[in-house]
Amino acid sequence: MRALIQRVSRASVSVDTDVVSEIGPGLLVLVGVREADSEGKAVALADKIANLRIFADDEGKMNRSVLDTGGDVLVVSQFTLYGDTRKGRRPSFVEAAAPEVAEPLVRAVADRLAGLGLRTAGGRFGAHMHVELTNDGPVALIVEV
């Protein structure tokens, strides 16, 4: 599993003209899934995300996690994280899991984050979404498990 994690001041997901979820300060997490991924990897990814020390402490150093700050987490499925651009000009998505594999694992990431006590929101799986965010920093990291 792979995630692009962005520290945000705010973020939201809209489908058509309807806002389906929004968060305040915290993390926007775009999650990519491969066919071989498992629920164990989803839990490991969520634990890594929840405990990443990417928020400033009182001295301005990145030393606090989203758990420490009480921030929100917006989890959005993003199969294009497994886009292969090594050949040609059109990405190949053969590494990305099929929707029936990916959807429950993305949900498992969000469920684990919620189970750790984080306020969690999500996108709408399979929909054409508009994701708006205000980066904080900016801080953006790729995490793989």
Structure summary:
This protein has 145 residues and is α/β, with parallel strands linked by helices. It has helices at 39-51, 66-69, 99-115; strands at residues 2-15, 18-23, 26-32, 55-56, 62-64, 72-77, 119-122, 129-144. The radius of gyration is 15 Å and the shape is globular.
Keyword list:
alpha/beta, 6-stranded mixed sheet, 23% helix, 40% strand, globular
Arithmetic mean of pLDDT: 97
Helix-strand makeup class:
alpha/beta
Helical segment count? 3
Oligomeric assembly = single chain
Question: In terms of per-residue confidence, which ranges show pLDDT below 50 for 5 or more consecutive residues?
Answer: none
- First-last Cα distance: 6 Å
Percent helix, as a range, is 10-25%
The sequence of SSEs as H and E is EEEHEEHEHEE
Described by strand count, sense and barrel closure, the largest sheet is: 6 strands, mixed
Measured on Cα atoms, how large is the radius of gyration? Answer: 15 Å
Could you say which overall geometry the principal axes of the C-alpha atoms support?
Answer: globular
Number of DSSP strand runs: 8
> How large a portion of the residues is in β-strands, by DSSP E?
35-45%
Descriptive report:
By secondary structure, this protein is α/β, with parallel strands linked by helices. 23% of the residues lie in helices and 40% in strands. The protein has three helices and eight strands. The strands form two sheets. Strands 1, 2, 3, 6, 7 and 8 form a six-stranded mixed β-sheet that branches. The longest helix is centred in the last third of the chain and has 17 residues. It is globular.
